[in-house]
Write a structure and sequence with these properties.
Elements lengths: L28 E4 L7 E3 L2 E7 L3 E8 L3 E8 L3 E5 L4 E5 L2 E5 L3 E5 L2 E7 L3 E8 L38 E4 L12 E3 L4 E4 L3 E2 L17 E7 L1 E7 L13 E6 L2 E5 L4 E6 L4 E8 L4 H4 L18
Antiparallel strand pairs: 1-19, 2-3, 3-4, 4-11, 5-10, 6-9, 6-11, 7-8, 7-10, 9-12, 13-14, 14-21, 15-21, 16-19, 16-21, 17-18, 17-20
Protein name: 5-deoxy-glucuronate isomerase
InterPro entries: RmlC-like_jellyroll
């Protein structure tokens, strides 16, 4: 259901056997950081947490010099810096990451220092079990969702472990969708911003059979439109939804719900799409993943 000019129109639809006939339906998850109380608050700033099935997302409004540590981190995590930079320490090395960047931090002990303060998003897999109780929706996945595969990491980088980072200042290119980066645990698409509201006559309703999509709003506001398909079980049926969210916020869309999103503000509207683990279909498109040379694709993909 993509417009013919949308780069995603050429994607090959893939799924793990397709959707089951019943038991598919779950509610979307919303982390409205602009109105909720922070889970953590201190001299380093304020931090909110929300989760999907396979991941935990944290949003930090950081104070100047705020330090955020992870001890015995079980796997690679993501640091997204939409404005100011950070100093990341891992394995005895320190890396200065400029603002408007994405960074990948290996397992083990690490710290992220927001030298000049500012916003920060970190992405952790569900293996970071200590973060789940901090999520505003910590119990949202008590009901089994077997149509979403359990998390499995992608292959390790052949060049070995280190803190890797990339600028998000990437020019648009015809035929490429957004600005996509991946690691062993996540795929992040820092979408091209909307300058003003999105044209309501050029939307992109679509669905995913077996993975969640997390849409992080870092500027502006958006309406997430959702339509539930009918299964053979009426308990799965839902009314359409149109949730108007502001920034910062995170919105997790469950499969196989049909969805599309409209930017709403007169100025800049910036959305970031997040997938855990990475998407195979995006990875199969030549030139779409901007750091594809650093992280291999699993043979199963």
């Amino acid at each position: 259901m993509y417009d013919k000019n949308d780069p995603r129109a050429a994607l090959t639809q893939q799924s793990a056997g397709g959707p089951a006939p019943t038991g598919l339906i779950a509610e979307p998850q919303m982390g409205l950081f602009y109105k909720a109380e922070p889970a953590e608050s201190g001299p380093g700033g304020q931090t909110w947490f929300t989760r999907g099935k396979n991941f935990v997302l944290s949003w930090t409004d950081g104070a100047k010099g705020g330090v955020f540590a992870r001890k015995d981190q079980p796997d690679e995590y993501v640091v997204l810096l939409p404005e100011a930079g950070a100093r990341i320490a891992w394995n005895g090395e320190t890396v200065d990451v400029p603002g408007f960047s994405i960074a990948f931090v290996p397992a083990g002990d690490s710290t992220v220092e927001l030298v000049d303060g500012g916003p920060m998003c970190r992405l952790f897999t569900i293996k970071s079990a200590d973060l789940i109780p901090l999520c505003t929706n910590s119990g949202a996945y008590s009901r089994s969702r077997p149509h979403i595969p359990e998390f499995a990491p992608w292959p390790e980088p052949p060049a070995g472990w280190k803190v890797r980072h990339h600028s998000l200042e990437v020019p648009q290119e015809s035929g490429r969708f957004g600005r996509i980066f991946r690691c062993t645990t996540f795929m992040v698409n820092y979408l091209d911003p909307n300058d003003g509201p999105r044209d309501p006559h050029a939307l992109s309703p679509h669905h995913h059979d077996d993975f969640e999509q997390c849409s992080l709003a870092v500027a502006g506001s958006f309406i997430h439109h959702l339509r539930w398909p009918w299964t053979i079980d009426m308990d799965d049926w839902r009314e359409d939804r149109a949730d108007h969210v502001h920034s910062p916020s995170a919105y997790v869309i469950p499969p196989p719900v049909i969805h599309t999103t409209r930017a709403m503000e007169p100025g800049r509207n910036q959305l970031v799409d997040i997938f855990c683990p990475p998407r195979a279909d995006f990875s199969a498109k030549a030139g779409w993943v901007l750091n594809a040379d650093e992280y291999p694709v699993p043979q199963s993909a």
